[in-house]
């Protein structure tokens, strides 16, 4: 049962209702989780991660471009965001870039999101 303060007991600035109504994570922690969700919040990025996660080793950018319904500049943009988030790594071989998923970083993100979603239940 929530503990409440009677109106007469309250000082200015004190809450009058459920004193346990506080977030379980800090603003910084919430920001980190929001960033995780943000990087996953676009269908093209999810498709690119799906292709990379299902294909061990390196995938040529030409194959990634063929796998999604957008043009090359948009694919490059989404790959850059995934690289900046640390979820994919790239290696230049000749004129082509080859990508692979960073399984350790992806597993860490999966765990963070899973933990936070459990907290919401």
Describe the fold and architecture.
By secondary structure, the chain is mainly α. The protein has a domain at 44-121: Winged helix-like DNA-binding domain superfamily/Winged helix DNA-binding domain (Arc Repressor Mutant, subunit A). Helices cover 51% and strands 12% of the residues. It is built from five helices and three strands. It has helices spanning 27-39, 43-54, 61-67, 72-84, 103-119, and strands at residues 59-60, 88-93, 96-101. The chain has a three-stranded antiparallel sheet. The chain is elongated. The two termini are 18 Å apart.
Poorly predicted segments: none
- CATH architecture term of the domain at 44-121: Orthogonal Bundle
Biggest pleated-sheet summary: 3 strands, antiparallel
Q: Overall 3D geometry?
A: elongated
| DSSP helix fraction | 40-55%
Question: What is the terminal separation in angstroms?
Answer: 18 Å
The average pLDDT value, as a whole number, equals 88
Short note summarizing the structure:
The protein is mainly α. About 50% of the residues lie in helices and about 10% in strands.
């Amino acid at each position: 049962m929530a503990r409440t303060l009677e109106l007469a007991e309250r000082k200015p600035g004190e809450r009058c209702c459920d004193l346990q109504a506080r977030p379980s994570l800090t603003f910084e922690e919430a920001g980190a989780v929001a960033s995780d969700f943000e990087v996953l919040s676009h269908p093209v990025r999810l498709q690119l991660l799906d292709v990379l996660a299902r294909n061990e080793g390196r995938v040529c950018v030409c194959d990634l471009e063929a796998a999604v319904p957008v043009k090359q500049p948009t694919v490059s943009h989404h790959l850059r965001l995934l690289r900046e988030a640390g979820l994919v790594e790239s290696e230049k071989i000749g004129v082509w870039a080859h990508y692979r998923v960073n399984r350790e970083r992806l597993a860490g993100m999966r765990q963070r999101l899973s933990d936070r979603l459990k907290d919401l239940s």
